[in-house]
Design a protein that fits this description.
Strand order of the largest sheet: 1-2-3
Distance between the termini: 112 Å
Radius of gyration: 31 Å
Order of helices and strands: HHEEE
Number of strands: 3
């Protein structure tokens, strides 16, 4: 006759309830999803920054050309406003963009002294 052994509470805690064979796979899946989200956020932020730089360059170019009396073709979707105060020409350009499903307005201002 075999006597059934009773386990102590400590011995039962040390024994795994379930297998942990797929645990590494789950960690890898979470890590890949997190990295994909981080990379997509970085790329979206970089595109926003580059759009702002492009808008600043457009404002500076438009201000220089307007001071020389030339006409500049403005890119599609960009609004431009000029004002002349005390010998200084101010050019303000603005553009509406969609960033992470939110509508935003980017602006840039350039000034040039007209002689």
């Amino acid at each position: 006759m075999v006597k059934a052994s009773r386990q102590s509470a400590l011995e039962r805690i040390k024994q795994p309830i379930r297998s942990s064979a797929g645990f590494v796979t789950v960690e890898l899946a979470i890590a890949i999803a997190t990295l994909a989200l981080a990379v997509s956020t970085i790329v979206a932020g970089l595109s926003l920054y580059l759009s702002q730089l492009n808008l600043v360059d457009t404002a500076h170019t438009a201000a220089r050309m307007a001071a020389r009396g030339e006409v500049m073709r403005i890119p599609t979707g960009v609004r431009m406003q000029q004002s002349f105060v005390d010998g200084v020409l101010y050019v303000n350009v603005a553009r509406d963009i969609s960033f992470l499903s939110k509508s935003m307005q980017l602006q840039a201002t350039a000034s040039v002294v007209v002689e």
